[in-house]
Amino acid sequence: MISRPRLRIAIVYDCLYPHTIGGAERWYRSLASRLASRHEVTYLTRVQWRDGENPDAPAGVKLVGLGVNTPLYTQSGRRRIGPPIRFGLGVFIHLIRNRRAYDVVHTCSFPYFPMMLAAVVARLGGPPMVTDWIEVWPRDYWNSYLGRYGGWIGALIQRLCIRLTGQAFTFADSTATMLRRYGYRKEPIILRGMFAGDEAAPAVEPDLKSARAPLVVYVGRHIREKHVTAIPAAIARARETIPDLRAIIFGDGPERPRLLAEVARSRLEGCIECPGFVDWSAIDEALRRAMCLLLPSEREGYGLVVLEAAARGTPAIVVGGPHNAAADFIEEGVNGYVAPDAGPGALAAAIIQVSRNGASLRVSTAARFKRLAPTFAIESSLDRIEEAYRAAAGLSSTNRT
Q: Are 286 and 215 in contact (CB under 8 A)?
């Protein structure tokens, strides 16, 4: 009989869904949950829960909380340096103390400090490491994010981390290209599937016959590169053609005060809801009755929420650009539109186009998703990930028993 060996896997990421919300967070939770059905999985993460609160760990996964619960972002929307450094040191100490406890460590490249220190432990005789590169930032983006000198340091650290990477996973061809451009000498494994569906409830077929509400939905963090503050002006412009248009903007983040100010400036307090972070069931309900998803982000390493919307027959509007992998999911006029920029005029024009195409666009969105669902599903990635684990650990892919 041939059986695959059971692996001892450590997943390292400083955020845990649903304590922290985001596409990467959903990916790592789903990955840990799937792997735990046939392997021993430990999830190393930053403490994101209050004292006395029981963390929401994936079923079958051992959760290790490191560091302390502190904000991740500054008021300007940049990632704080302190939390990832403290978390990275916690990861280093844990892996040094447990260097024989794991066959492989699976890290996210960003934030860089935990990944760098996990690589150091690997070179000191600890478990080998594989790394997700969800995004690779070009130098000009680093400069816009941190300024000239800070950007130079950030780009330098990114190059160092690329050199420290063993087996790399990416989720888009463009990211793999950028990884090679900045010094990666191996061949990255491109994973197409991150979509895990609704793990809390069975899948429900979208209602494609009933008319949808004139409703636009945004789901994501409120950070500068997501351009969430552009939504109120776009809604105001589109309401000149669609008078009863409304929007729900889910999520939270450092741009939230600016967003609320824009809603007030546009006098749309009665038309735009900003409920913050909510239970996934509320997002599910909104996506099922919405006319479209609006994701004006300039930078997405995958764009999981576009697939979440498409699974509900809801088309998406995204913004084109070299760093936005979400645009790869859009077939123009079939499951949504790619706006040329995040300006109010461009976004409003796309919203109006979705409204005009109505039911036919929903039908083609659902049909396209159903056709490509096996490619998008997380299950399509698991075998390749497990094979990479075994290769990194020097284990045979099969054992005879």
A: yes
